[in-house]
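Render this sequence as a predicted structure.
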Amino acid sequence: MKEFLKQNRGFVSFLVCFGFFRLAIADWNPIPTGSMRPNILEGDVVLVNRVAYDFKLPLSDVALFSVGNPQRGDIITFTSPKDGVRLIKRLVALPGDVVEMRNEVLTINGATAEYSGPDAFTERLDNGSTTSALQIRERVAGSERTVQFLPDVGAQRNFGPLVVPKDNYFFLGDNRDNSADSRYIGFVPRHLLIGKAHRIMVSAAIKDDWLPRLERTGLRLE
């Protein structure tokens, strides 16, 4: 072993540095589900900035120091407080915010979201069936994005008002009727945040022919 390490110390050093970089600085996250459609698709691999908010001890949730604060509208990867699964969702409410939803309409701190430009089309579900879908532009509390609704799919379309506790956050998937988000898993404490997703590295059509989607490579997430 000593001889191997001596002969390959450059390669071993590279692996150690690469491992530290991925565990502590930046990571990539493959997307297996459609909970963030239409902005992130199944088969996208997103680049995640692990030091956007906190610098953590590698392989732990222990923050050594704070770098910045999450903002409404950020797309964030985090560990689910319910079952420990890594998720990616959009942050919609900060600590102290009052968040509410009535018939899919989001309200934050008394400000009701504005919606415009609905586009109707057919969406394929994970079980292979199809359903009607609407993509609508949503503007609320200083952030804006395109969200998707599936009118024929049963989902939790009403909740709150809820006050987000200190050091906790409230997340929703952009695919509002097909997302296991804070409506189901509850508030997410800051120490479970992993990092901010900001760009698609590569993409492949995993629900079809597995061909690369070159037009999505390098696409910045809004």
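Summary. The longest helix spans residues 9-25. The first strand starts at residue 26 and ends at 30.
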